[in-house]
Give the backbone structure.
Amino acid sequence: MNVKIGGTTRPYRTVAFDADRNVVRLIEQRLLPHEFQIVEPANFKETARAIRDMVVRGAGAIGATAAYGLAQGARTFRGANLERFQVHVEGVYETLKAARPTAVDPVNAMDEVRAVMRAGESVAEQQVLALAAAEEFAHADVRHCEAIGRHGAPLIQEGMRVLTHCNAGWLAFVDVGSATAPLYAAQAQGRKFKVYCDETRPRSQGATLTAWELAQQGVEHQIIADNAAGHLMQRGEIDLVIVGSDRTLGQTGEVANKIGTYTKAVLAKRHGIPFYVAIPLSTIDWNLNSGADIPIENRHEAEVLGAWGVTAAGQREYVRVANPGSSACNPGFDVTPAELITGIITPAGIFKPRALRTKRKLIDAAA
Ligand code: MRU
């Protein structure tokens, strides 16, 4: 999407790859909205660290980063011994997989890359195929988000007030975004609407990233405290909720997404407000049979006990907010059951969550 810095506007992707230098190129998301910087993890271990430390975050974006990271790691192998190469690639895969556990996109992305690599008969061929497959994963991510936009745009009617949680925008993907795709498509069709961005404590991706994105694209929006949504719903000030997902179970329609999503889904049900989840195909887990089995990332308590911000002098600083000596519990994601979800917006169309399983052929065909 377009980024305006100073007087200049130019398009960026959240994740890209410089093949000549074998480096991944990422927008440093921890600095936004205060500073726009591109960083270049120089090897697969640094790429895994960038995922773990949330330089890059959001299910689709970490999926593409893992795909490129796998290619990056594969391309550093020297020699022609295929067996040794495979052991090396396995190590790269496991390192990238361990970086963040809840989102399934990195695993799906790397499985796709590895499947393509298998057609290569030599190390050199597999290295070439790895990069081509990672590039294709990134392009497919963009195509899927655009298709989500086409299917979801009719949901966004003139004058609507839409709530979103965390950041499921283009910064959470390679481009366009999932929850934001219908918004950007409706905007392109000339409709005006307003977006409420949940602040999304503890890391505030709504207040920092979604608000920045919407401001860059000229979409009317306001940030709300996480606890304000119930009040606004009760007063009839929210017409629709759209969120993203880090893992959607194809078998049950359950959705793991940023902590607080479940609360919003319960509130939306209570107030009869449609609640949609927008997902590219790489977010679907066809294997797990229960949301209780989704690994939920437990994050460092410092995120809850304090906050990062920028001082008047432009310095980025962490301040402690909570009572000294108190500890915190910090689950990063929660699981929303199918009965609270009105529809799942996929690149193949909008489906009831429990119908995903029966629509698998149609959904897979959208790849
Ligand atoms: O911890 P984050 O910032 O990676 O969490 C991001 C979210 O929860 C998004 O809503 C999610 O990834 C879905 S959109 C890609």
Summary: The first strand starts at residue 2 and ends at 5. The chain has two domains: 2-145, 152-365. The chain has a mean pLDDT of 97.
